[in-house]
Amino acid sequence: MFPYEVILHGIAGSVAAVMSTCLLFPIDQIKTHLQLSEKNNNEEDTSITTTIKKIHKTSGIQGFYRGIIPVIFGNIVSQFVYFFWYNFLKIATGTYQSSMLQYAKCSMLAGLIASICTNPFWVLQTRMLKSKGGVITVAMQMYQEDGLKAFFKGLSTSLILVTNPIINYMIYESYKIWAQSLFIDSKYDALIFFFGGALGKFFATVATYPYQLLRTKAHIAKEQGYLQMIKTIYIQGGIPAFFRGLLPKLSQTVLANAFNIMFYEQIFKLLEKAIIILHENQVYHESAKIIVLAAFLYIAANWKINQEVKPEAKEQKEAVKSF
């Protein structure tokens, strides 16, 4: 049986992910458009400013939130699965306040499970950027083209990207332990969580960005293999081409993870306090239920006795009259 704490961790992770996604999704849209844009000699065609203008001109404000529905669902599932298993493994292996290697093991296993469960959402979100249809329409088109395997395109690259949360949480957990030992007062916790999340994600994103670029292209590629994609990207722009769109990616992921971690930690604290309060109040609730039940049984018993006594009293009264 799973400890109730891991369920709270999963719920906190899901809620935090939705909040941070809605807050920063437009930046992710800009990053994805930059990655998928074709190489052009005119640098302005692929600049951040031009991309923003193009999205707004084509679709208006809604264009910055196109594809957010599968992302939200994907984040709900991925963050619940990840934080559930990450904390379950930490509890099961006694990893709390442990070494970075133990954090890495727990993060790797949780990341593998989350990647397999959520890959279809990320494929769908990327395909929606190149299609005018809605979520159901695009999903049906994908299924008709390649069947179920269409939703798992790029999965191998996603599994490689498990290194991202490994680096992220190794740095974050170590930083959190150090910072909380330095700042004992809990009023600094929110800042500790925010900066820790930003720090961990910065190094994780820079280290794994080329893999993320390959995954994005793999989601929309038809027959092109990974080796061919690597060759094509290198021919187009050399080593810098593998980091194309890194700036908006850092702006999105670092901020998103900072907010996500801060929201997650704070929401978990609130949920944990709520459970404790409910548990304490449950004693009073159960006592109240027993008192109400006892009172009800007492009233019912008295009513039944009165009903039985009334006929006897009536018979006695009739007997007195006849006498």
List keywords for this structure.
disordered C terminus, Mitochondrial carrier fold, 0% strand, 80% helix, 323 residues, 10 helices
Question: Quick summary of this structure?
Answer:
By secondary structure, this protein is mainly alpha-helical.
Structure, explained:
The chain is mainly α and 323 residues long. The chain has a single domain (4-279), classed as Mitochondrial carrier fold (Alpha/alpha barrel), CATH 1.50.40.10. It is 80% helix and 0% strand. The chain has ten helices and no strands. The chain has helices at residues 4-36, 48-59, 68-93, 100-128, 135-146, 155-160, 163-182, 189-220, 226-237, 246-322. Helix 3 (68-93) runs antiparallel to helix 4 (100-128), helix 4 packs across helix 5 (135-146) and helix 8 (189-220) packs across helix 10. The protein starts with a helix and ends with a helix.
Strand content: under 5%
Based on the structure given, which CATH architecture is correct? Alpha/alpha barrel
Give the N-to-C terminal Cα separation.
Answer: 75 Å
Q: Count helical runs.
A: 10
Largest sheet: none
Low-confidence stretches: 319-323
3D shape: globular
CATH topology: Mitochondrial carrier fold
Considering DSSP H and I runs of 4 or more, what fraction of the residues is helical?
over 70%
Round the Cα radius of gyration to an integer and report it: 29 Å
Structurally, the number of domains stands at 1
Pfam families: Mito_carr (PF00153)
Subcellular location: Membrane
Family: Belongs to the mitochondrial carrier (TC 2.A.29) family.
Solcar repeats: 4-92, 98-178, 188-270
